[in-house]
Amino acid sequence: MKVLVTGFEPFGEEKINPSWEAIKTLPEEINGAEIIKKRLPVSFKAVKKKLPKIIDEFMPKVIILTGQAGGRVNISVERVAINVMDSKKEDNDGYKPEDEPIFENAPVAYFSTLPIRRIVNTLKQNKIPATISNTAGTYVCNTAMYVALHHTTLNGLDAKTGFIHVPYIPEQVLEKTQPSMSLEMIEKAIEIAIKESIKS
Q: Which domain of life is it from (predicted)?
């Protein structure tokens, strides 16, 4: 079994992105599953182009996308991705969409196919603050989740797919009043999410 786990490059004023920092050190294998780690660009257009190619190259049975959500206090396991790109800030390519569909004539939304409730419950049992989130926003994270679910659905791929938002890590909030979570806890949370997702 192959598990695709993605994080994002830094964006905005940030020098690092905790989503990528947390997954790049994951083991190559977890409970017998091969772990494939990929860093995605913070670019609406590039994610739409690159993510389907990565999925087709590796044909994973589980796809866990991760991203930074500064200001959130816990691990947020996303329930739904919506078919819209809308941002007050530019992506890393300088693109700033407003009320644009990700894909024309496509479903308005897709629900995660990860075992989101089980993931959250197991995280809490391991003393990791976690919740199910009902909004992945309208920035590149939501686009990545939608693109992955649209691609797997459209092509009949058997892959549990979803998105997890992670908070800032402490070094990012030294000069701002924002919640944070240790990188070690985020790493543990993602590993737990993988283990729960590869269960039958």
A: Archaea
Condensed to tens digits (0 to 9), the pLDDT of residues 130-151 reads: 999 999 999 999 999 999 999 9
* Number of alpha helices (DSSP H) and beta strands (DSSP E) in the chain: 5, 9
Q: How many CB atoms lie within 10 A of CB 60?
A: 24
CATH of 2-198, one of 3.30.160.20, 3.40.630.20, 3.40.50.2000, 1.10.760.10: 3.40.630.20
Alpha carbon separation from 100 to 48, 106, 147, 183 (Å, rounded): 13, 12, 14, 34
> 194: exposed, middle or buried (C-beta count within 10 Å: 0-12, 13-18, 19+)?
buried
Tell me the C-alpha distance between 84 and 140, whole Å. 10
Residues catalogued as catalytic: 78, 141, 165
